Amino acid sequence: MREYSNDEPVDFVIVGTGAGGGTLACKLAEYGFSVVALDAGPYWRPLEDFASDESHQSKLYWTDERIVDGDNPLQLGSNNSGKSVGGSTVHFAMVSLRFRPEWFKARTLLGYGADWPLDWCEMWSYYSEVEQALKISGPVTYPWGPRRPRYPYRPHELNAAALVLAKGAEALGIAWTPTPLATISAPRGLAHPCVYRGMCVIGCATNAKQSVLVTWLPRALAAGAEVRDLAMVGRIEHDSGGLATGVHYFREGRQHFQRARNVVVAGYAIETPRLLLSSASSRFPQGLANSSGLVGKNLMVQANQAVWGLMRQEVRAYKGPPSLAITEHWNYTDAGKDFFGGYAYMSQGPLPIVWAGTQAGKRGLWGQRLLDQMELYNHQVGLKIVGECLPQERNRVTLTDERDQYGLPIPRVTYSYCDNDRRLIRHSLGFMRQALEVVGATEIWDETDDTCHLNGTARMGSAPENSVVNADCRSWDIPNLWICDGSVFPTVGGVNPSLTIQAIACRTADRIKTSAARGEL
Amino acid sequence: MGERYPGYDVLAKRHSPSWNEQTRAVIDARLAVDPAAHRFLSDTEWVTLLAVCARIIPQPPDRVPAVPIAALIDAKLFEDRRDGYRDARLPAIREAWRRALAALDTESRQQYGARFHALQPLTQDDLLQAVQEGKGSESAWGDFPQQVFFTKRLLHDIVTAYYAHPTSWNEIGFGGPAAPRGYVRMGFDMRDPWEAAEADDARVG
User: Fold this and answer.
1) Which domain holds residue A313?
2) What is residue A78's predicted lDDT score, i.e. its pLDDT?
3) Of A56, A61, A73, which is closest to B88 when you measure between CB atoms?
4) Would you list the domain boundaries of chain B?
5) Which residues on chain A are in Cβ contact (under 8 Å) with B132?
6) What would the mean pLDDT of A21-39 be, rounded to a whole number?
7) Alpha-carbon distance A514 to A507, whole Å?
8) Over 60: is that where the pLDDT of A125 sits?
9) How far is CA B5 from CA A91, A355, A369, B11, in A?
10) Total number of domains constituting chain A
11) Model pTM greater than 0.90?
12) Four-point Cα dihedral A42, A48, A50, A53, nearest 10
């Protein structure tokens, strides 16, 4: 790996190496820019560092304290926040979906949320680039939306949990498909195909998972980027002219300062606004890139409610990737809805600790009743949504007076559903209940309060007064400060965000290359 | 209980291709936890925690050794390990547990004239259920958010500790560690020879 000194102003210092930062680091390095990418987490070698153990592998998660409040305080950490080189993609469930085209103009075409300053046709080609880079395994034809190229690898075999979804969808007359997944169904380089060990969300120990860690970052290093792990960035510095000059970070027990011509923040929807806000200065007293006052606001989760039941047959949902089958019917169908937005739902395969946490924390079971339910683990089956929640300014990330181990202010994450969110959830629970009933599941119950994926908090837009960055992920206020992660989403749609984050990063890299050629950097 | 998968012992796979060296080291460390070890909680708090764990997860009396749930929680407290989020109504994990264990004892003495660990199991259950429903007494709990604590801290920490242990995997028929070898048979009523067989099940593959 090439290494840069702190005093050498690199073209780009990137804070965070997940779906946004890791992808961008690769693309910029391949375009010939000098790049240093910092990450607060360690640079794992999965074959040597990962155990098959749910408890031990919590080392992949962002477990530093965050305060949660609002009407619906969020659960963070394991299900949505990674602290690893490669970010949350090291533990994501690999579900790799494109947005519905209309979502990029949600306000104009569908009447809710906000329009993106991006064109879906352009995004379609960037989605293809990412799908090729990750060798996504998916169906020959996808049932919804405009035509897309064939997925590079064939779909995975379905497990029993996925067959439950398929049978239910067919009985209700809606389409379903094997889920497009970022885990290989055939050999790729030195990696074997997925062995269906089912522990994807605690880190893939065989490197079948096509995370940022094993796809974009090796390319980034080959192209001359440096990845500096265990480096927690606490502050972005700027000069008297208001341009960013580099970042202060904590590593190996002391503070450092990396000089850079451009700074990219890619810390995801909590750490990104946290860093921008805590970099406030006399020139930018409300935090960097925040003349709109929108940094930290419009935090969006995705609804992650589920319906669970029991099958007479053995399901053993712990085998295989957890979400092998999906329906996006309610993302693409607008008729018969009493809410804005959409949702997908997928088959599920919770590991024991997560499953026990669901039975205890969500269903309130303990004692013998809990043990009895847990004994039915191999017969349980579930359908779970990724549902679109609307942007609301009251949902936000702010700073508290408490300090963490680095001496940095601990963030406060405030979240409340709106009425539309609740209507979407009610619709989804009712529909999924039918989808379980028709396949003969019994003892069906609703898990009503789960959420996943974080977005918003530094939205992109078409004007400085209503957004933090422009379509190129470039700050309106500080021209050499960029934000490239899920923070820039104006709306979230009803699909997992990682593919879109990576597609935006690819586009941003192209825009930077073009701007540099024009002398506009 | 424990009858659904007779004879299944996930540890029997320790030297099979389902376990790699990293996993063996991690599980060995967990199995070596001393059930009596408490480095964070005081002796007084410790016996209360033991009694709480025994009601949330009642283990068979003939299980030796029992899963050391309380010791795993004490280790979490000693190391001050966090989960990545804290409900604003709750104090940090150490203080939350200390205050709740003290409140349980106070409530128990007020109502029954004895500490929590000395009560009959069904009485202990009544007290725990009252906390779950937010009906613990004002004088014992004050403004401490007992319901939030019960759901987000107490249940979370106890089940997370128990279901991290191989003994619990035997009970539920979980395959356990699976790397480098994963699974081949994925459909309904299908299992690989190295998976647990249900008591009424002669099917393999």
Assistant:
1) 10-517
2) 87
3) A73
4) 10-172
5) 364, 366
6) 98
7) 11
8) yes
9) 30, 19, 18, 14
10) 1
11) yes
12) -140
